[in-house]
Amino acid sequence: MSAHDTRHDASDDDHRLAALGYRPELSRVLSRFASFSVAFTYLSPMVGIYSLFVFGAGAGGPRYIWLMPIVVFGMWLVARVFGELGSHYPVAGALYQYSKYTVGPRYGWWVGWFYGMALLVTVAAVDTGVVPYVVSLSNNWFNTSLDSGSHTTVLLITLALLAVQTSLNIVGAKMMGRVAGFGTYAEMVGTFGIAIILLIAGFHHGLGFLFSSEGAEHVKTNSLGVDFGGNWWAGAALIAILAHVYIFYGFESAGDVAEETKDATRQVPRAMQQALLVGGLTSFVLVAALLLATPDDPAGYKKATSLDGGVPFILSSNISASWLNDLLLLLVIFAFFSCGSSVQGAGARLAFSFARDGALPGGKMVSKVSPRFHTPVNALLLGALVPIVFTLLVNLTPNKDVHIGFITYPAKVSALTALVSFGVSGIYLSFLLTVIGAIVARSRGWVPQGPFQLGRLGWATTIGAAVYLGLMLINVVAPTGLTSPRGALFNLDWVTLAVMAVIGLLGLVAFLIVRPAERVVVHGRDDLAAPAGRRLE
């Protein structure tokens, strides 16, 4: 076989796209590394750990690190299911498209709706989450007196970030890939680099410390003051694992940009799995280093694993050089920036895919592609405007508990925080629905035709992924009272479920307006499906 025969031809990707009923409109410029980088920077170990280390270590103690492999393995099963679907359906919009083809247009529309809303919420969460680090660096370098708690400061910094991210994403997918690539390097330096720096500075504990709970199961010795009644496995572990659950997703974004990826049928499955596994490795190394670097006195440890200290306290107490602390701040800021950029890019591709199918109000406008940059400009603008609206919700912060029927909205919690609590539950719901769609397809005789296939492990992998997602979704949303560890640290009792219900009602309005069963069906071709498969009806 000649070299020409084994080399992938870009027209193969377009032929596959045509077999699914679409013509190529976006530029296929993302390399294997760029595809991986988009997925990896969305997952972003640094963003996740800097945001959630305190909740995991504070709730479960050092031993919480060993809960991470459970989440990574569960999500690896999901990534393999998505990889098989992405290999067969290399279309922008990922989960929406997979569910549309495996079950039907109505089902796919709802998957896309919850997934899309979760992506937009995540953009707002990431871009507002970086504000304290930007403020700290500005105050260090320019002697400013910015307040990271000021609503005006939060809004202005978020607006500036969104403006830059949107501009770069509009320029082209190649630029998005470059930003994600630099973000990947920043993540590597910021995870392995910090671990090495802390090791050189000198860990304060031996490796056996990682197997201890440090009394996290008892309210008197729990750093966050939550009560597990003396139970670690049946109490603390169930909550501490959520600190990992809230990190390990985003790998599916490689499928969102499939139409801009070279050799998408092969590269998308690889990027999904590699982003997850590399993310798991880097996260484990960074969390282990941070835990071992916590002070060895009880008061110091408690501060390091509480909201008053956290990662910044651990780093500052171990690293005396101000320039090095500033460098680490820069890495963190860029990690947040590249994460937000990748999430916005993925969300815009989903909106474009939705709109192109006529599944969104104003679809013709949203699906417009720039003739110069070959990017979905209006979808990207939408991906900036909606997070701005979400960011404004930071101004809605009640001074006292608000009682709405049987739901109590807690004081001092902004509406943006409540919305962010939906982000993970929305992701897990859309993931679960997509995997259920794969189960439905298999039961109907669907046979994957892409280069990546699960083979004999197809049923076991898919069912395992569904079980994991179902159990974790319940763990994420289960209302147990505002005074319980779950309600106090993660889901605000009934608030997350209430937000899901509101988003569902808004979706119902849009669903009735769009009538996806009538419009999406025209984009239901699958000319390469096995005979046992079926077209949309």
What does this entry show, briefly?
With about 525 residues, the chain is an all-alpha fold. Helix content is about 65%, strand content about 0%.
CATH architecture: Up-down Bundle
Structural class: mainly alpha
The end-to-end distance, rounded to whole angstroms, is 42 Å
Count of individual beta strands: 2
Envelope shape: globular
Q: Briefly, what CATH class?
A: Mainly Alpha
| Main beta sheet | 2 strands, antiparallel
Q: What percent of residues are in strands?
A: under 5%
Number of helices: 24
Strand order of the largest sheet: 1-2
Task: Give the CATH superfamily.
Answer: Amino acid/polyamine transporter I
Give the helices and strands as they follow along the chain. HHHHHHHHHHHHHHHHHHHEEHHHHH
Question: What is the number of independent domains?
Answer: 1
Percent helix range: 55-70%
Low confidence ranges: 1-6, 530-537
Describe the protein's architecture and organization.
It is a single chain. The protein is mainly α and 537 residues long. It has a single domain (27-523), classed as Amino acid/polyamine transporter I (Up-down Bundle), CATH 1.20.1740. It is built from 24 helices and two strands. The chain has helices at 3-6, 10-19, 32-43, 45-60, 68-88, 95-102, 105-129, 131-142, 151-171, 173-201, 232-240, 242-245, 253-256, 264-292, 298-304, 310-318, 322-356, 363-366, 377-392, 415-443, 458-477, 485-491, 495-514, 516-519, and strands spanning 402-404, 407-409. It has a two-stranded antiparallel sheet. A hairpin with a 2-residue loop joins strand 1 (402-404) and strand 2. Helix 8 (131-142) packs antiparallel against helix 17 (322-356) and helix 9 (151-171) crosses helix 10 (173-201). The two termini are 42 Å apart. The model is unreliable at 1-6 and 530-537 (pLDDT under 50).
